[in-house]
Design a protein that fits this description.
It contains one helix and six strands; from the N terminus they run ββββββα. The chain has one domain. It has a six-stranded antiparallel sheet. Strand 2 and strand 3 form a beta hairpin. It is mainly beta and about 90 residues long.
């Protein structure tokens, strides 16, 4: 089961759930992380292992940790075991 949390500075920012945000661009990608700019100006970082890509997007790997980063604040989910391809091919953002 995934675990959700956030830092002690504040409650999750803006009151906007992650699934209500659009991905604006992929900022960086490697075999263990992906970094996205979201429509509210925050960053979404996806971590895991074995990430592979081709021209159309992810082709393999497993997501284990997701964090939404804002200056002086963040929220995260860990203990995740989701195939990266399944996450990107999900029918909804939720």
């Amino acid at each position: 089961m995934a675990t959700y949390g956030h830092n002690l500075f504040d409650a999750p920012p803006f009151g906007i759930p992650w699934y209500d945000l659009e991905i604006i661009e992929l900022v960086d990608a490697s075999n263990f992380s992906m970094d996205f700019l979201l429509s509210d100006g925050t960053n979404l970082r996806i971590f895991g292992n074995g990430f592979t890509y081709d021209e159309q997007g992810p082709t393999g790997g497993t997501v284990t940790f997701v964090a939404r980063e804002i200056p002086l604040n963040y929220e995260f989910a860990f203990d995740i075991q989701i195939p990266l391809v399944d996450l990107f091919n999900a029918p909804t953002k939720a």
